Amino acid sequence: MTPLWRRLNWFLHRRQFERELEEEMRYHRELAHGNFGNITLLKEESRAVWTWTFWEQFAQDIRYGLRAMAANRLFTAMAVVSLALGIGANSAIYSFMDAILVRALPVSHPEELVILNWRAQKESPIVHGHWGDSYDEPEGAEVSPNFPYPA
Predict the structure, then answer these.
(1) pLDDT tens per residue across span 122-138
(2) Angle (deg, nearest 10), helices 53-71 and 73-97
(3) 100 near 126, Cβ under 8 Å?
(4) What is the DSSP letter of 123?
């Protein structure tokens, strides 16, 4: 019998196989006069040959998780909200970073773009004030990329 057919057959006739396994274990225990070993372990090893142990344990874990979430609804709600906020924030940040840093600028020749700065002496008659950052150069000039309206 192929392993797939054997496992499907066990899945369809599970109760019958369990009864036969119990009967066989009882028979061997009687033959060994009580020195047969750990019966539960032997049953689990026999089931592992007949079944998909990984998928059964996975299904048990899912059922246990669902029961635990149903019992602790407030914790479940907080976990779902935390995950939703975290996933949403990461999606927004990565979308922003993709649009700003990764994609090319929507211009025909992006390599020809330049950054303009203005430079003026500290007491310039044109620059009385401006909004944004500026820095002072050692020669006493003020430099900024933010142009004031009169300039």
Answers:
(1) 666 666 666 667 777 87
(2) 110
(3) no
(4) T
